[in-house]
């Protein structure tokens, strides 16, 4: 694997991929501004960067930006079904970026690709789910000493990394890019919200209006999916284990109840919790014929697929693209979308470029910050500096031709004082 220069499905797909990359770039003006500055200043010169992320046209523009800054970058997929093969081909052929990703790759190949990135001795890593970091803490601990810091893009990964820090096994500093307001408030809510509904409709061609949609989890992703489902006319039910989030869902106007009750009437079930076996045999037994189940959380463990398979008489693959029919008996079938993997990336094309513009702008600037900090970081899970977030938000507003107010001198003085009262 150390000698592998790249591994993609077909380099002949590059022309199609280049069109998609440049199309996405039109909606990523903040990242483009950073790329222009990086190309002039080369703030990442000499830095080796390894990324394990969804291989999409938006990610391609992030990789282009890092390379423009002088970094040596290599990319592998963070999910076997999220890779856009044409985009991967174009990154290699048109932009000279080593990519190790094939859509539908086996678990073995998935880990071969992770190892190929680690073989390049990265000093800063970018993760989407912490698979790269996890490997650097286990079978490839030989590469951990090279790491200055790692950046984590998704909620699931940050959860894993905080657990590693708490248990005392974290070997190097991590930047929780997912926790940045410019990421989770927008990418998770508006990106996941729109792309999840897009994936479901592409896969099933169903009408959401009037359908009972059950969403497991009311974090930022769950909120976004619920908003978009309601906007399409669906009757939305939320299931939660957190009392505050459940209360928020109620006050946002959603029906809230346990999955044991919701499984009786739901037409579409969407998991976005980051936890394991949220939908299980006890729920499948209560679902009606034709119920649709899918996942928009990072890993394919939220739906207990082995239990569903065990209780089925047969499985009919690809009754539609990305739709498998699990035949329970002669009167009941349940339809699983995208093998239980991220439905928004497996059955659609993921988040719109305009929202990834903020996430990846923050990611690029966090990479520059890591380079400047060097080995000064404490081994912990760190937040992205506020000044980076403010800069990204201001530029995004500017690109949308939106202006905001500024504090007057009087207002600045008032906020800094404690003398005035009633």
**Classification by helices and strands:** alpha/beta
Q: In percent, how helical is the residue content?
A: 40-55%
On the 0 to 100 scale, the average pLDDT is 95
The unreliable regions are none
- Give the tally of structural domains: 2
* CATH H-level superfamily of the largest domain: Adenosylhomocysteinase-like
Individual helix count: 17
Strand order of the largest sheet: 9-8-7-10-11-14-13-12
Task: Give a count of the beta strands, DSSP E runs of length 2 or more.
Answer: 15
Spatial extent as radius of gyration: 22 Å
What share of the residues does DSSP label as strand, in percent?
Answer: 15-25%
CATH class of the largest domain: Alpha Beta
Largest sheet: 8 strands, mixed
Describe the fold and architecture:
With 422 residues, the chain is of the alpha/beta class. The chain folds into 2 domains: 222 residues, Rossmann fold (3-Layer(aba) Sandwich); 157 residues, Rossmann fold. The chain is built from 17 helices and 15 strands. The longest helix has 24 residues. It is globular.
Key structural traits:
422 residues, alpha/beta, Rossmann fold, 2 domains, 8-stranded mixed beta sheet, 44% helix
Write the layout of secondary structure elements.
Layout: H1 14-26, H2 29-41, E1 48-53, H3 57-68, E2 72-77, H4 85-93, E3 99-100, H5 107-118, E4 124-127, H6 131-136, E5 149-152, H7 155-166, E6 174-176, H8 181-204, E7 212-216, H9 220-231, E8 235-239, H10 243-251, E9 255-256, H11 259-265, E10 268-271, H12 281-284, E11 291-295, H13 305-310, E12 314-320, E13 323-329, E14 332-337, H14 343-346, H15 353-373, E15 381-382, H16 386-399, H17 409-415
Parallel strand pairs: 1-2, 1-4, 2-3, 4-5, 5-6, 6-15, 7-8, 7-10, 8-9, 10-11, 11-14
Antiparallel strand pairs: 12-13, 13-14
Helix pairs in contact: 1-3, 1-4, 2-3, 2-15, 3-15, 8-9, 8-15, 15-16
């Amino acid at each position: 694997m150390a000698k592998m220069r790249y591994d993609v499905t077909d380099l002949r797909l590059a022309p199609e991929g280049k069109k998609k990359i440049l199309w996405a770039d039109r909606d990523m003006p903040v990242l483009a501004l950073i790329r222009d500055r990086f190309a002039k200043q080369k703030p990442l010169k000499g830095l080796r960067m390894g990324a394990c992320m969804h291989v999409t046209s938006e990610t391609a523009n992030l990789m282009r930006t890092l390379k423009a800054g002088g970094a040596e970058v290599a990319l592998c997929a963070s999910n076997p079904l999220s890779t856009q093969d044409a985009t991967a081909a174009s990154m290699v052929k048109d932009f000279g970026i080593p990519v190790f990703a094939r859509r539908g790759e086996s678990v073995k190949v998935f880990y071969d690709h992770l190892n190929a990135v680690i073989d390049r001795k990265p000093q800063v890593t970018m993760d989407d789910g912490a698979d790269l970091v996890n490997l650097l803490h286990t079978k490839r601990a030989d590469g951990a000493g090279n790491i200055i810091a790692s950046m984590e893009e998704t909620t699931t990964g940050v959860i894993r990394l905080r657990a590693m820090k708490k248990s005392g096994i974290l070997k190097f500093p991590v930047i929780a890019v997912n926790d940045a307001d410019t990421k989770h408030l927008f990418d998770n809510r508006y990106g996941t919200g729109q792309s999840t509904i897009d994936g479901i409709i592409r896969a099933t061609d169903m009408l959401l209006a009037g359908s009972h949609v059950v969403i497991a989890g009311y974090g930022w992703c769950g909120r976004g999916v619920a908003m978009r489902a309601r906007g399409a006319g669906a009757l939305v039910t939320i299931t939660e284990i957190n009392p505050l989030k459940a209360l928020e869902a109620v006050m946002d106007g959603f029906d809230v109840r346990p999955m044991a009750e919701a499984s009786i009437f739901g037409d579409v079930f969407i998991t976005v919790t980051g936890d394991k076996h949220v939908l299980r045999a006890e729920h499948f037994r209560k679902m009606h014929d034709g119920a649709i189940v899918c996942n928009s959380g990072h890993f394919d463990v939220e739906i207990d697929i082995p239990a569903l398979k065990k209780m089925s008489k047969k499985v009919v693959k690809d009754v539609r693209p990305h739709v498998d029919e699990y035949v329970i008996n002669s009167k009941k079938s349940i339809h699983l979308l995208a093998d239980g993997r991220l439905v928004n990336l497996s059955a659609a094309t993921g988040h719109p470029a305009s929202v990834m513009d903020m996430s990846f702008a923050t990611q690029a600037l966090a990479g520059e910050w890591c380079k400047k900090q060097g080995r000064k970081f404490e081994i912990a899970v760190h937040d992205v500096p506020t000044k980076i977030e403010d800069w990204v938000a201001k530029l995004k507003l500017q690109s949308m031709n939106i202006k905001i107010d500024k504090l007057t001198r009087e207002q600045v003085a008032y906020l800094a004082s404690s003398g005035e009262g009633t």
